[in-house]
Amino acid sequence: MKKVAVIGYGGQGSWHCSQILNSDVVSLAGIYDIKSARCDAARNNGIKVYNSFEEVLKDETVDIVLIAVPNDVHKEQVVSALNAGKNVICEKPVEMSVSALDEMIDASVRNKKLFSVHQNRRWDVDFLAMKKIAESGEIGELINIESRIHGSRGIPSDWRCEKEHGGGMILDWGVHLIDQILQICKGKISRIFCTCSHITNSEVDDGFKLNIFFEDGKTAYVEVGTYNFLPLPRFYMQCKEGSAIISDWRHKAHVAKLTAWIEKDVTPVQNAAGITKTMAPRDELTLDEYEVDRPESDVHDFYRNYCAALDGKEEIIVKLSEVRRVMQVMEAAFKSDELNQMVEVNI
Fold it and tell me: Which domain holds residue 31?
């Protein structure tokens, strides 16, 4: 089993530790955190605590260094660990700019060490269900897909509220939703338009609305909100032969598949203060509706794949080229919001 040292014992770092302690492919070497209270918490949980980051890097028994610290420290620690001959997993977002990520990639190539990013929400079953429907072609070619996460508590009152540490929802949740979208829509992106909200926080975005336009005509919409007391559906997808919706991550996908296009003899329906044929609902003669079971998923497959890739047995799932593409989209989103206009891209 590969030995992992976790840097940072906050919420995500402690989550990683619990995963590693129950793993079939990795074991926990220990943790290091700059905060003594977190080190004490780790000791109380029976976990070894290193005295410094440098001590971790000098430990020849450590195969993998897992970075789970605030975003602005990622590059420094990732590059240091790679230069010390360690393989590295970094929490998302990997950094706050493409140029910073490129420095990390260069260090990985130069030192011939495996570097990947913990894009764990590729294992979310709602995303996997929508991806399966899109790729199956059962409701035809994709036209547009919408992905939303809504909450109502604002941003947690920690470093995620602070710009210097890489706070805000584009970097926090956007990195996940954009990554998921780009796993479904793999064509080249030509234009991006984004607006950010600052309802509860003036320093960083507490929400955003992002439109992505692909060269092949497909479109995607990504929205994150932290001041939504009634959330909109988690996913909605339009295809040429039907639609699919997931109302909440806990629910199954509901699919409506077009079985026949019949326009004659449409009976007008009463709609508000008038009648309409255009918005008349379809019936079972032209539409088949059904639910799609939630796929099986195990987020620990991220670690299993990483270790298999380290041994040369599998291709790494979370590729740096994909991570870089997500970072390019986020950079363009920030630029679009700043300029308040559509930006042309080649991503």
Answer: 2-118
